[in-house]
Write a structure and sequence with these properties.
By secondary structure, this protein is α+β, with helices and mostly antiparallel strands. The protein has two domains: 63 residues, 2,3-Dihydroxybiphenyl 1,2-Dioxygenase, domain 1 (Roll), CATH 3.10.180.10; 49 residues, Roll (2,3-Dihydroxybiphenyl 1,2-Dioxygenase, domain 1). It is built from two helices and eight strands; from the N terminus they run βαββββαβββ. It has an eight-stranded mixed β-sheet, covered by helices on one side. The two termini are 17 Å apart. It comes from Nonomuraea harbinensis. InterPro entries: Anthracycline_SecMetBiosynth (IPR052164), Glyoxalase_6 (IPR041581), VOC_core (IPR037523).
Length: 115
């Protein structure tokens, strides 16, 4: 099975300022999902998101890779030297995500959908 990049995220403490910046810079269109998240539709390429980070969470940019089994992939990532930041978490009906840092400290997301 291929493991494609299926989503990306840009996050920081002021979601609205980031959203305005990227819409103005690149002409991206976005729609508010909730007060923390906006779904970005750049027109070409992958859709992504701009989100507000919580207290103590530094700004970040990441990609999300689609996998069949989040828990198995996270365990393999740990074996290879990764640190899990967010365990498998349900975000919608049949959809889960997780975040880990690779051995170099890069933040990588995983997405799994059962539908």
């Amino acid at each position: 099975m291929a493991h494609p990049i299926v989503h990306w995220e840009i996050a920081g403490p002021d979601r609205e300022a980031l959203r305005t910046f990227y819409e103005s810079l690149f002409g991206w269109k976005s729609e508010t999902v909730d007060h923390n998240y906006a779904l970005v539709r750049p027109g070409e390429g992958l859709d992504g998101g701009i989100m507000r980070t919580g207290t103590g969470v530094p700004p970040y940019v990441t990609v999300y890779v689609r996998v069949e089994d989040l828990k198995q992939t996270l365990e393999r990532a740990r074996e290879l030297g990764a640190d899990v930041c967010v365990p498998a978490t349900t975000i919608g009906e049949g959809t889960q995500f997780a975040l880990f840092t690779d051995p170099a400290g890069n933040l990588i997301g995983l997405l799994s959908a059962t539908r």
